[in-house]
Amino acid sequence: LTTSRDAIAERLTSYADNNDIPLDTEGIVIIDIEGPQFSPVYFGNYLDTALPTYDPALLDRILDAYKLRIDVAREVFPQAKLGLYDSITPHPFGDAALGSMIRRQLGYDYAAANGLFDGLDYACPVVYEMWGVTDIQYVRHDAVPTLGIEATRSLRKTTGEPLELMPMLSLTVFNGSSNHNREPALVSDVNRTIEILKGLGVNDYLIWNGNDNLVD
Question: Would you tell me which of 5, 122, 148, 152 could form a disulfide with 166, CB atoms 3.0–4.6 Å apart?
Fold first, then answer.
């Protein structure tokens, strides 16, 4: 929360240099800030009076820290398209009426109203594969990406302008509650997610793989 603009710029420039990313890239740069305190999915925890984490003033500081990093990224990569990871990550049950999803949405809406997305080109809903065939919740497969897109589409910049979407998909099941966590997802499930996105009018997406080494 107290890191200076210069320190952030130095760290980001060094990262780009070490990973052979040209500063004049016209590609998509996804800003990814994670952790149990600071990930966007947890913003709502600072606004729920029923939780011990309730602290709107701290959330305001967190949002300022995010906006500073977005601003620096814009300076470091002036021609890139900027997106923010985890905006929105839907509840793995795909149910907008769940209390925890309502809290998530509250946090995202608060962040949007306070200008978090004003400096971005994309919101990046995380619609990773969450369930495998032996999971009880596998029947909710279609509901997860549907909620991710619909919830993200409700966000606005402070000008009222809607955000462009760049959903993030996976070839791996990412869900500690799944019997198939960190296993390769079924190709048919990934294809199904893509078809759901197309049905919602979303034709562009990224597939995140990272360091996962998928066999077959």
Answer: 122
The model's pTM is 0.93
3-state secondary structure the chain: CCCCHHHHHHHHHHHHHHCCCCCCCCCEEEECCCCCCCCHHHHHHHCCCCCCCCCHHHHHHHHHHHHHHHHHHHHHCCCCEEEEECCCCCCCCCCCCCHHHHHHHHHHHHHHHCCCCCCCCEEECECCECCCCCCHHHHHCCHHHHHHHHHHHCCECCCCCECEECCEEECEECCCCCCCCCCECCHHHHHHHHHHHHHCCCCCCEEECCCCCCCC
What is d(CA 153, CA 161) in angstroms, rounded to the nearest whole number?
Answer: 11
Q: How far is CA 47 from the centre of its chain?
A: 19
What are the tens digits of pLDDT across the range 27-66? 999 999 988 789 999 999 999 999 999 999 999 999 999 9
What proportion of the chain, given as a percentage, has pLDDT over 90? 94
